[in-house]
Amino acid sequence: MSEPPRDSRAALPAVDRVLNAPGAGGLVERYGRSLVLDTVRQIIAERRGAGEAASVEAIVTASAALLDRLMRPSQRRVFNLTGTVLHTNLGRAPLPEEAVAAAVEAMRAPSTLEYDLASGRRGERDDHIAGWLTRLTGAEAALAVNNNAGALLLTLNALAAGRETLVSRGELIEIGGAFRLPDIMQRAGTRLREVGTTNRTHLRDFADAIGPDTALILKVHTSNYEIQGFTAAVPASRLAQLAKERGVAFVEDLGSGTLVDLDRWGLPHEPTVAEALKAGADLVTFSGDKLLGGPQAGLVVGRAELIATLATNPLKRALRLDKIRLAALEAVLRLYADPDHLAERLPALRLLTRPRTEIAALAQRLMPAMVQALDGSATVALVETNSQIGSGALPVSLLPSAGLALAPSPPSGAAVEILARRLRALPVPVIGRIEGGRLILDLRCLEDEVEFAAQLGRLVPDRP
Ligand SMILES: *Cc1c(COP(=O)(O)O)cnc(C)c1O
Fold first, then answer.
1. Do 210 and 333 belong to one domain?
2. Which of 86, 187, 287, 289, when mutated, tests ligand 1's pocket best, judged by the most ligand atoms within 8 Å of its CB?
3. N- or C-end of the chain: fewer Cβ atoms within 10 A?
4. Spacing, Cα 149 to ligand 1 middle (Å)
């Protein structure tokens, strides 16, 4: 062991002296003695290692700063001004207040999670949402699991383990992260049989591939890409018919899926769950936190006997939803009972349908505060831009939007990064996107204008 530098040891206070200092009392009160003690020791050790002297006050100040950082929640609220409404990294759909209240209630007290009040007997946790899902989609039965990846894993395992699943080569998707369809299928224990080609798959490709070992035909929504040019895909209704004739199951993974026709609000058409069922799918899987606008969940709807098979599979238990999310999901589904007011009440839909004129007016109002906060370190311009739905929904459609473009002066790649970092350092971090040397703040998802403007005064000064 090497001796620490003699002079630095002499210049550092003992731990006890720091803990007895006037400023330390408040820290102990706030954070507890053992955590403060650990922190003070850590700070003193760091100074000793660096060969630096420090006063009692300096150690107290450094400890307070470290404790403040340590105790700050890691998952924090942000302003999503990226222009991607359902941003997976920023938590996808913001939930309506009805869902927030329901989740809080479920957290706080015992509930009827698996209890039937009428009979006084055990109930089913999925009953809270199954009624709404069947009503809204026309399905015979429904269940919910952790997410759509889980829904797919459960479906494939329950219906096709040890047997073959047919998928078009044009639909072997990777969604991002570790979600790659062939991997999920392998883990589900089903053998992937690819049919057709990347750009063209025909009904006869499926018909020729069905054999005694085939359990299932899977159609996957190509959520995040589009194959263009010389292409052919088999319509779901034809696949459903073929599956029925040959006695295999037909499952459609809609990805985002929606319960209502988005055309109604001028959004591009996305296949609805009801349409997929009507076209003949035995089961349809989709996410709870994409276009549906609810909490993270994977939903499976369709034929009752298949849902029953899924419900009794051991993976269902491993993938089941907790009471908090079930409560939130139920509250969101209840909003769908009244589609006429959905666009006001469901934040995801409200943000997606927000007109450009309204967003541009917001940008105009915020411009002076932004100019003042930046204090000459960057210029501010109003811009027209395009938002994306995100989460792989409607990959190629863009929503006309507006915002502010911040350009550092003088311009440089490093300067725009620093600017982005300054905005991320605000009390409620602001996340924009860098494009062509500018920081674009797409204001589509900014609803709390007053709070946003109020915190701009706390922008840290520009650092070179
Ligand atoms: C998003 C998506 C998934 C994964 O859904 P999660 O809810 O994120 O697990 C699966 N399939 C498709 C087609 C998707 O778009």
1. yes
2. 287
3. N
4. 6
pLDDT in tens, 396-405: 678 999 999 9
* Atom number, ligand 1, closest to the C-alpha of residue 149: 9
pTM of the model: 0.92
CA 295 to chain centre: 9
pLDDT tens column, 43-63 = 999 999 999 999 999 999 999
Regarding whether 320 and 210 lie in a shared domain, the answer is: yes
**Is residue 464 assigned to a domain?**
no
3-state SS, one letter per residue, for 170-238: HHCCEEECCEEHHHHHHHHCCEEEEECCCCECCHHHHHHHCCCCEEEEEEECCCCCCCCCCCECCCHHH
Pocket test for ligand 1, best of 153, 223, 273 (most atoms within 8 A of CB): 223
Sign of CA dihedral 129, 131, 132, 138: positive
Structural domain contains residue 260 = yes
DSSP at 296: S
